[in-house]
Amino acid sequence: MRLELRDDGFPFFRASIMAESRNLRSLKREIMREIYENRMLLTARRDRPEGWKLLSGVWSPFYIQLRVLNSFPATLKKVAEAMSLMLKKEAPQVNRLVGVAFAGVPIATALSIVSGIPACHTRKFVGVTTDEELQKALTQYGQHSLLEGEVQEGDRLCLVDDLVTQLDAKLMARTQVMSELEKRGTKNVKCDDVAVLIDRQQGAGDRAKVSGIQLHTLIKFMDEGLPLIKDLMPPADYTTISAYLADPSKYQGHV
Question: Quick one: how far is CA 48 from the chain centroid?
Fold first, then answer.
């Protein structure tokens, strides 16, 4: 079927958008299934009967460990391609990426190569998990840079990380980045966008709205990710994880 073009080229543009949407859906499916098959998604029944206690203190019957994503370069490339399409659609104003150490750094690097958007990365503060600890660390860090890479006045930054639970770590990363830019005297920079591979859907979306953050999620775990791997999982695993995500409070006796 031949596509008729109008003077403004709209039909061609619409066809291009539709193709990108189909490609994005296909990439999401492949990425999620490879994450499960390569045990970057661990489940209590399959991998660890006692489950996991997350950094937030919440018990979980599954654990997503995307820090090893760069050990699977074919999957990492798909992640970069999919996130590039996502940012092109949702955040075209972004002109610099910031990988959040450690897991976000290889993702931001791959995304930079695919998209052509320059990337930086934050330094890791070991043992810092609260705003109070971060503020103390910032005053003690001396002459070391809190952000590795160039940022220019007027830039629109996007923090890049592997996953998000309640957004706390991303807000601290934003504080770290803006503190470094203030120290450098770099003005008129915005850092209000966050892009993640997976959202566990445990509060980050609501927190982002309150905090003025634009959260860009490639795969929402409960709504998209879990259904994409349902046929790969033991039924009991799928049922437990689905029920947990619907109401995590009922499972906190495991802690």
Answer: 25
CA distance 135 to 137: 5
The one-character DSSP state at 45 is T
The phi and psi torsions of 116 (rounded to 5 degrees) equal 85, 5
**What crossing angle do the helices spanning 73-90 and 104-115 adopt, rounded to 10°?**
70
Non-local (6+) Cβ contacts of 192 within 8 A are 212, 213, 214
Residue 94 lies in a domain: yes
Share of the chain above pLDDT 70, in %: 85
CB 32 within 8 A of CB 143: no
Closest CA to 204 of 91, 83, 61, 54: 54
Q: Which domain holds residue 126?
A: 69-227
pLDDT bucket at 2, cuts 50 / 70 / 90: very low
Q: Report angle CA 40, 41, 44 to the nearest 5 degrees.
A: 135
Residue 174 lies in a domain: yes
Going by pLDDT thresholds of 50, 70 and 90, the confidence category of residue 1 is: very low
Q: How confident is the model at residue 104 (pLDDT cuts 50, 70, 90)?
A: very high
Query: Contact, 39 vs 75, CB < 8 A?
Result: no
Q: Would 169 be classed as within a structural domain?
A: yes
Mean pLDDT of 55-79: 93
The verdict on residue 216 lying in a domain is yes
Question: What's the mean pLDDT when you consider all of the chain?
Answer: 89
Cα 163 to Cα 21, 43, 219: the distances in Å are 22, 17, 9
pTM: predicted TM-score of the whole model, two decimal places: 0.88
Q: Characterize the bridge pairing of strands 62-64 and 41-43.
A: antiparallel
Terminal-residue alpha carbon distance, the chain: 59
- Structural domain total, the chain: 1
